């Protein structure tokens, strides 16, 4: 899947260049981009075609490491792996527009990308790229015999509760939530990396409503959908149907 910047946060800060004794004030536009690990992201120049006399430089990180360069007049269309090789076989340049595509992206390629266009007009633009790991599917379990369909033989006058636990492992910067239909019942969030997260839920066994456990970050939501039929146990219904929804 190819991601293009959208809903970006834009900040402007002045940049000064000394050109033949004249200070030229430019603006450095910062655009935020979010992408799921393993996909590609396209960083656009917002032009249909670059000029022959334009020098286009793509740089990465606080050290402004040169990762791509275009000079159509000199027929230069080059990409670079970077000192640690993190960009090896991941960069593609559009020779007409100068846009940069980062393929099979990982968290190693997260950070700031600075575009510099040096020609008849000088300009600069920065992309802040955030990379999110793929989310695991939540695992739903029960430690209560009341979640079994065999428990329906008990007296209907007694109140029966089913204890459920929704869990995920090796996650970070996510929220885990229980829903009853479209209504939020409870949630828990974590900002640390690579930890386990669990959220319990108590429901009545005879409850015919739909429940779902949802894990989401800023751009993705994944949930196993719990839809209990009257003839089946709650846990069986929870674990039978899965759905994946992009938000």
Automatic annotation (TrEMBL):
The keyword Nucleus does not apply. Gene3D superfamilies: Immunoglobulins (2.60.40.10). InterPro entries: Ig-like_dom (IPR007110), Ig-like_dom_sf (IPR036179), Ig-like_fold (IPR013783). Residues 138-232 form the Ig-like domain. Residues 1-27 form the signal peptide. PROSITE patterns: IG_LIKE. Keywords: Signal. PANTHER family: CD48 ANTIGEN-RELATED, LFA-3. This is Ig-like domain-containing protein.
């Amino acid at each position: 899947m190819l991601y293009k910047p959208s809903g970006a946060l834009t900040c402007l800060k002045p940049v000064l260049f000394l050109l033949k004794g004249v200070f030229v004030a430019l603006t450095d536009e910062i655009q935020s981009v979010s992408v799921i690990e393993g996909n590609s992201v396209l960083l656009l120049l917002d032009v249909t075609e670059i000029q022959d006399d334009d020098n286009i430089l793509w740089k990465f990180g606080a050290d402004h490491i040169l990762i791509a360069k275009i000079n159509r007049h000199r027929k230069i269309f080059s990409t670079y792996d970077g000192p640690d090789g993190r960009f090896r076989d991941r960069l593609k340049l559009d020779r007409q527009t100068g846009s940069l595509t980062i393929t099979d992206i990982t968290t190693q390629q997260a950070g700031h990308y600075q575009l510099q266009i040096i020609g008849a007009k000088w300009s600069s633009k920065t992309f802040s790229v955030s990379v999110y790991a793929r989310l695991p599917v939540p695992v739903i379990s029960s430690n209560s015999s009341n979640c079994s369909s065999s428990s329906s033989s008990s007296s209907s006058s007694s109140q029966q509760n089913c204890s459920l636990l929704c869990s995920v492992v090796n996650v970070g910067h996510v929220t885990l939530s229980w829903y009853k239909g479209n209504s939020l019942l409870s949630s828990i969030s974590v900002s640390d990396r690579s930890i386990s997260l669990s959220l319990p839920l108590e429901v009545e066994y005879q409850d015919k409503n739909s429940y779902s456990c949802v894990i989401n970050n800023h751009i993705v939501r994944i949930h196993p959908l719990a839809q209990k039929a009257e003839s089946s146990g709650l846990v069986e219904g929870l674990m039978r149907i899965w759905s994946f929804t992009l938000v």
